[in-house]
Design a protein that fits this description.
By secondary structure, the chain is mainly alpha-helical. Helices cover about 70% and strands about 5% of the residues. The chain has a three-stranded antiparallel β-sheet with strand order 1-2-3. The longest helix is centred in the first third of the chain and has 44 residues, at about 15-60. The radius of gyration is 28 Å and the shape is elongated. The relative contact order is 0.10.
């Protein structure tokens, strides 16, 4: 008997209550979709802000595009290393006391890459590909110890693991890259935050 009383009570509820519930559900679904769309917009804003910041930093769209489309290493670490190695100059050539030369963005050594001609090592695409692969290798070799990896990149794994053989210049080199990396991260965060703020300001949310 109680069951039929409860059933009758339920089906006798006003239809406007059902309408009200459906309206609330529709509002929640719209809010969910709007939040998803806003998150997607913010992601695009962040990505574009990064591209713009890196491009202004390096004055080289190709370098930025190549580093952002690879997934081997942190592009900001690569940017910091290239800054110290070549000053973002794709035509940079360094001369060493042993007679070898270093080429391009990543200053690839002519002895280490003896199978490549100088013109090949100065080709931006080849240089970036080989440089990224080598940096990825030393990071893997070092167990992702960035300082050790940078020592190995500059002086070779043997000297990197023998403190008595590690040049002071190599230690300074790694410190410069770490400092540059910190400044790149801080600059990128500032640019991204400003872009997001600019996005909200016209909406009257700031």
């Amino acid at each position: 008997m109680m069951f039929w009383v409860m059933a009758y009570h339920f089906i006798s509820q006003p239809l406007d209550r059902v309408t009200e519930l459906n309206t609330q559900i529709a509002t929640l679904e719209k809010t969910r979709d709007e939040v998803s769309q806003e998150l997607a917009t913010l992601h695009l804003i962040e990505m574009q802000a990064k591209v713009d910041f890196y491009t202004e930093l390096t004055s080289d769209e190709f370098l930025v595009d190549q580093l952002l489309t690879q997934d081997r290493i942190d592009p900001e670490l690569a940017l910091a290393l290239v800054s110290v190695e070549s000053g973002y100059n794709p035509r940079a050539v360094g001369r060493n006391t042993n007679g070898s030369r270093d080429f391009g963005f990543f200053q690839l050594n002519s002895t280490t890459y003896s199978q490549y001609s100088a013109s090949a090592l100065l080709d931006p695409e080849t240089n970036i590909d080989l440089g990224v692969r080598h940096l990825d290798w030393v990071l893997d070799w070092s167990g992702n110890d960035v300082e050790l990896a940078l020592w190995a990149y500059n002086a070779g794994p043997y000297r990197a693991t023998n403190p008595g053989l590690l040049p002071v210049s190599t230690q300074i080199y790694a410190e410069k890259i770490q400092d540059k990396l910190d400044r790149i991260i801080q600059g990128r965060r500032l640019v991204v935050a400003q872009r997001k703020l600019d996005h909200y300001t016209p909406l009257g949310l700031y």
